[in-house]
Amino acid sequence: MRLNNELVVLDLEATSNQEIADERPAVQTNNFIIEIGAAFLDRDLKLVDTFERLVRPEEPITPFITEITSITPQMCEGQPLWKEVASEFEDWVARHCGSIKRVRLCAWGNYFDMRLLRDVYARYDRPFSFSGTCFDVKTLAMLWMALGGRRTDKLGVDTVASAMGIEPEGRYHRALTDAASEAKILQRVFADLEGGFFLPDAPGKRRSHFRITAESSPKAS
Q: Is 119 helix (H, G, I), strand (E, B) or coil?
């Protein structure tokens, strides 16, 4: 399978106002990026390169976030602000594809990463130079899980990766580990969809995979 655009699968870790369980606001805010991880896939969905940077936020990294991500305030001290990391990230993307307008960003749940990315660009008065088109890896993963007769109500990166036999290269909830796992999930989804579809089986059982060709009717494999 060959796409018309290169893909950048990215993952962001961020600050949060969620701290004490009994006092957490109803609406969670994530104001500043504290880490970005990204995997660059070429048009054949092959991994070309990865990108990873810690980012200094302009609000505290709370114990709640440190517990989830293992990122401490000390780790981000002395790191560049996003306005500096953004330039480095864009240069990294452009180095692999020429024009960053051509690349398609991918994230696990666009409602978080893409909203946060755009918000932080706006916060530092930087133009958002990427295309407005973004693939949601989580949605594609849900399709894969559903077609395989698996549960679709628990769709964490770790859950889907485990179902696909993908081992993390590090700790989940660190940006590069998540981005690399999401890239492998995306590769698996496209590979399986290119190979055929999933043959319905008895309720509750995992479904077998079959291929459709012009020369023959569908056969289970």
A: helix
Give 125-147 pLDDT, tens digit per residue. Answer: 999 999 988 999 999 999 999 98
The single-letter code of the amino acid at 128 is F
2 in a structural domain: no
Each residue's pLDDT tens digit, 148-167 = 889 999 899 999 999 999 99
Distances (CA, A) of 48 to 39, 43, 172, 176: 8, 10, 21, 14
| Model pLDDT for residues 81-115, shown as the tens digit of each residue | 999 999 999 999 999 998 999 999 999 998 899 99
Query: In this structure, is residue 1 part of a structural domain?
Result: no
Quote the pLDDT of residue 220. 42
Which residue in this structure is represented by tokens 């609406």?
A: 27
Could you count the other beta carbons within 10 Å of the beta carbon of residue 198?
17
The total number of structural domains that make up the chain: 1
DSSP state letters, 8-58:
EEEEEEE--S--SGGG--SS----SEEEEEEEEE-TT--EEEEEEEE---S
Cα 122 from chain centroid?
A: 21
Residue located via tokens 């319905």: 200
Q: What is the CATH number of the domain that holds 181?
A: 3.30.420.10
Angstrom distance (rounded) from CA 178 to CA 174: 6
Could you tell me if residue 98 is inside a domain?
yes
Residue 66 lies in a domain: yes
Tell me the residue range of the domain where 182 lies.
Answer: 7-220
Question: What type of residue sits at position 170?
Answer: G
